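Hi Q.,

Before the meeting this afternoon, I wanted you to have the phosphoenolpyruvate prediction in hand. No need to reply - just skim if you have a minute. The sequence and ligand are here:
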Amino acid sequence: MGEIRLQGIPASEGIAIGPAFVVVPEPLGLPRPSPESPEQEIARFEAAAQAAGASLIALRDRVRVTADEATAAIFDAHRMMLDDPMLRDGVRRRIQAGAAAEAALTATVDELAQMLAGMADERFAARAADVRDVGRRLLRALLGLPEAGFGSMPQPAIIVAHDLTPSDTASLDPGKALGFCTAAGGQASHTAILARTLGIPAVVGLGQAALGSIASGQQLALDGSRGLVLVDPQSGSRRSLEAESRRQQRRRADQLQAASKPAETADGVRVRVGANIGKLESARAAVQFGAEEIGLLRAEFLYLGSPRPPDEETQLAAYRAICETLEGRPLIVRTLDLGGDKPPSFLEFPHELNPFLGWRAIRVSLDHPQLFKTQLRAILRVGALYPVSIMFPMVNDLGELRRAKDLLGEAAEELRREGLAYAESHQVGIMVETPSAALLADQLAGECDFVSLGTNDLIQYTLAVDRTNERVARLFQPLHPAVLRSIRSVIEAVHAKGKWVGMCGEMAGMQPAIPILLGLGLDEFSMVPSAIPGVKWLMGRLSMTQAREIAERAVSLASPAEVEALVSRALANLAD
Ligand code: PEP
Ligand code: MG
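Predicted structure with the ligand bound:
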């Protein structure tokens, strides 16, 4: 048989070659023939819900270690779904009407998932997959089945599935799952994010027609960075992919070995490379992967799951533990970034039509000065002991920056009056995440010490592309000329005020963006810890002259595709 080439969406880089393992979804719902009494069925369901909750906590904690905080939060959201009154009431109602717990659960999950899938708001529609995932977990607990997984995989293989749930993906054993390809899914789906953070090569969005013809055991070759799957690869293609895979592995080993060295360009220009973290565990990973500083602590992850905001002492203890782990490396704590896709459980969050344009980040903090000041006091206090800076998220203009700084001043004054030790001198910065802040960067930089580009949001607001909506995921383009020009003008404006400018959006860890950002003069790059070794390696192979040339040409191009082509030509010839 001849080789068949399937083109999908690149979801997670890396090359995998091996037999296919086709996953046939097991049917949801195995009604028991004779239910016990409704009370007993409800008790069975409650026990299953408890077991499912415990397994989700374990899964979240595992993902925290294997991936990162933000990825692990997917499973906190799943835990919240377990307590959703619509799920619980639906199951109870059906059990009272005579159904066994399994049948009641299956029907309720179907109903909820269908309702979500039919909603016009894409964010809710995308949650249908999560509800089904939670439903399967509950059903397994009810049936006494072991955790979902691919334990039946006879040998290391490439998984082929219509779609993988986030739980499936998080449970993959990288020793056995050489990679996966799915018919459905997009680059920004939870499944793709998990694959990237776990380092499993993956291609998604291949379409059912293409994948339907693959049988278990058939040989596949998958190239995650190109979104390519070869079915029954010819020996020539196989050999060249094997050679490329060996080269990538060698390169990664070299990168890891050199990760603790300071970042420097080929012509000796020092650049600051830091990490983004959410909690203590990722601070450890940051140190391990060679972070010189923490460019972003997403402090809200210390709050999100708890029924009330942690008090000052709890926060102080959390920040101190992180600082101790960092062994003297500087830490930038971003103040509460609640709202958007991170509504906390301890604040009334009204339903909003556009949460990303709504009550979010600094807006919430300025409306809740007490909550805000409690955090500021904790940061100022830890700053008396360690090198800590403060950063405000989603500031739009000087009015917001001034009000935030006033509250910071009040917090410091309170601490002084109370005789508590606090940082009397510390840097205060802002994130540039909105077009407004980008346009006013000169004014804002005039009244703070540094600026960090939050490109995850800056891109979504500049291009008007919801960062969580899979349907427009292809339009979320960091290398879009409009984004590059915005970044360039911010860097120039901030430098003109004599301040430094960093980036803590995902873009700072993206290989194709590195030459451009270096060339535009970015001072600090902060990224997921695991991206650091690769970024330092790349910086070491680029001269500043080369980077400036690439950047200058990139901002003059008309489309992301042209920018990508320019950078990939430039990076193609880098020496190992
Ligand atoms: C950003 O928007 O780029 C950013 C780093 O903040 P978050 O991803 O937490 O919104
Ligand atoms: Mg942001």
